[in-house]
Amino acid sequence: MSKRKANNGFARAERSCRALLRTNHVAVVNIDPCGAQIMANWKSRRQIRSLAIANALFDFASRRMQSG
User: Fold this and answer.
1) What is the pTM of this model?
2) Rounded CA gap, 4 and 6, in Å?
3) N or C: lower Cβ tally within 10 Å for the chain?
4) Where do the domains of the chain lie?
């Protein structure tokens, strides 16, 4: 009988964070005059202030961009 695939907690957390970002339609918006950045829902054009979404965006998205 073949062995079951090992459980990868990091990959599961990354998938869940990507799903959170995708369902909330997250975009990072640069505001030119002051140089600030905000998170916004690109579909409803409202600012996102959720800590969970911020953690998902900056923890996993930046890792993905650096490795890819």
Assistant:
1) 0.66
2) 6
3) N
4) 12-63
